[in-house]
Amino acid sequence: MHIMSASTGLPGNPPWPESRRFDSTIDFDIVLPGAAAQTWNCQTHFPNGTLPVGVAACTAPAGAVGSVAFGMEVYTGLGIRRPELSFVLGVERGVAEEQLSGEVIITANDPSESSSYLTCLGGAPFDGLRCQIGSYLSVRSELVIVGQ
């Protein structure tokens, strides 16, 4: 995930100039297990400080059948936080008549929370925050969504 931070990263903390503002983005892979494991790529962008509305289709690997899509909803079970850093990730998988879905709560930067899969760190000025799974401010367990 890549999001605008509260500050630009410049000395004096000036506000973000309009020309340097950007949408939040999420980009991740889903590995579907099986005899021939498939990796689907899921990505979308949305206004800073929000989450995407509805579901977004994931890109299928060559030869894949069916569909995979994801959606995100605000999670407030641990208090009010920035939406991009506290959400429920839902995934849907469809092949012919079979539909599977599952979801997982994802939070950031607190390894004492079992849902803290993301570590989000600030970068160079005007780069905002970049988040990744499985770094030192996140839990060490693999992010697994079980479809039902």
From TrEMBL:
Question: What is the name listed in the Swiss-Prot or TrEMBL entry for this protein?
Answer: Uncharacterized protein
Biological source species? Decorospora gaudefroyi
